[in-house]
Amino acid sequence: MSVNITFLGGAGTVTGSRYLVQHAGKSVLVDCGLFQGYKQLRLRNWRPLPVAPDKIDAVILTHAHLDHSGYLPLLAREGFSGHVYATAGTRDLCGILLPDSGHIQEEDADFANRHGFSKHTPALPLYTRRDALDCLRLFRSVPFSREFEPVPGWHATFSMAGHILGAASVLLEAAGRRILFSGDLGRPDDLLMLPADPAPAADTVLIESTYGDRVHPVEDVMAELGPALKRVAARGGVAVVPVFAVGRAQALLHAIARLKAGGALPASLPVFLDSPMAIKTTGLFERHPGEHRLSTREAHAMGHAATMVETTEQSKALAKRHGPMVILAGSGMATGGRVLHHLALYAGDHRNMIVLTGYQAPGTRGATLASGAKTVRLHGQDIAVNAEVVQLQSASAHADANQLMQWLRTLPRAPDEVYVVHGDMGASDELRKRIEHELKWRAMVPEHGSTWPG
Q1: CA 299, CA 165: separation in Å to the nearest integer?
Q2: Which residue from 72, 117, 213, 246 puts its CA 20 to 30 A from 395's CA?
Q3: How many CB atoms lie within 10 A of CB 321?
Q4: What are phi and psi of 279, to 5 degrees?
């Protein structure tokens, strides 16, 4: 009896990673992500899985970002009761991210109902904060490099993937078949994270392809960020920086701390981190010292590089301040969260700046801004965009195409097949071609819902 992989997400798209591995009546789900971006993708979150949640024996998470973990509260509410295996860093981050995701969904549904711009009456959250808190009891943390059994007779091992705190690649062995899931791979030269471990031998490889068709610029994030913030400060403007609460927010705080210390930015430039989730995440770096590049002193300085904005009242009070100032707020693709209110307030003024800090998935407001659109839709209204829009090219926490190929080359032997996943179709297909042409390996981009072997 063969080992089957069904691609329930992250196939032909950069979001919703879910890979169902089945053998001899047992099922393990590797990643359990939310679909984000285009509406037709987001609608998949509301559709039932082709397998009943109570028939899934275990979940293994590569990392905590919501496009890899954010479906867990719904899976558990619908009947999944097995263990969720993750590294300690991923467990701690999910303890922050998942309840916040439920809370934001409740807030967005409530806001839509109060202002009457939802097509559904009433608008409902996909899941609640309570659902998210309930699913956390299913987590079991496993150290890097320690083998564990997600189900009896199956073996799995986490190796470092860089990218964010706790991020892992997963080697899953079932019925003698070795399947390697890259997870999201970080950059070898990342400001915060250590480089990914070399890839272990595997028969089947699933490789992410977020930047499968691009190479990062040589310029580093400080060389890009410093002049932009100096420019907006000089004209007395406000820089609104949509950030991912996990990883990107901390990298920018670290960069700003270094820019101020080196004199590239005025030490007096006010910086605000308006994200309770990002504030909590920043504190985790001191609790996981072996998983990143920062010294104890640097981790402490990063946590003091901005005024921490915890409450809604404090967030609203920022509107009463005048520039220059920098506001970092979630979410990183402007799909929700407090950054929407700051964009609505500041996007219309030409003195201000919107700084996009990494990949913007098609269909998100971040992608709309990056495309040069003159308006952006916020809370049911079209808001004029007169602010300068800057997209940092060097702030991504993902490996680029050359770095992905470099990681594949660390495999001790050629795999039987490589599935190129977690990328837009163009990026995935470009990486597929490079794998076939340069490595001479069999590679393919799976279709959503397809099963290997078919």
Answers
A1: 13
A2: 72
A3: 12
A4: -65, -45
Question: How far is residue 310 CA from its own chain's centroid?
Answer: 22
Residues in CB range of 365: below 8 A, 6 or more apart: 333, 334, 335, 340, 343, 376, 377, 378
Cis peptide before 412 (omega within 30 of 0): no
Q: What is the pLDDT of residue 442?
A: 98
Helix axes 88-115, 276-284, angle to 10 degrees: 180
Give 141: exposed, middle or buried? Use CB within 10 Å, 0-12, 13-18, 19+.
middle
Angle between helices 221-234 and 248-261 (to 10 degrees): 70
pLDDT averaged over every residue in the chain = 94
Task: Quickly state the pLDDT bin for 110 (edges 50, 70, 90).
Answer: confident
Cα distances (Å, whole numbers) of residue 51 to 252, 316, 352: 41, 44, 49
Strands 26-32 and 18-23: antiparallel
Report the distance separating Cα 32 and Cα 29, nearest Å.
7
pLDDT at residue 237 in the model: 98
The per-residue DSSP string of 99-111 comes to HHHHHHHHHHHHH
Closest CA to 225 of 349, 356, 335: 356
pTM of the prediction?
Answer: 0.90
Query: For residue 383, what are its two tokens?
Result: 């808001």
Nearest to residue 95, comparing CAs of 61, 144, 45? 61
DSSP code of residue 290: G
Instruction: For residues 47-60, give the mean pLDDT.
Output: 97
- Tokens, residue 68: 């890899």
Q: How confident is the model at residue 454 (pLDDT cuts 50, 70, 90)?
A: low
Token duo for residue 359? 């990949």
Cβ-contact 359, 210 below 8 angstroms: yes
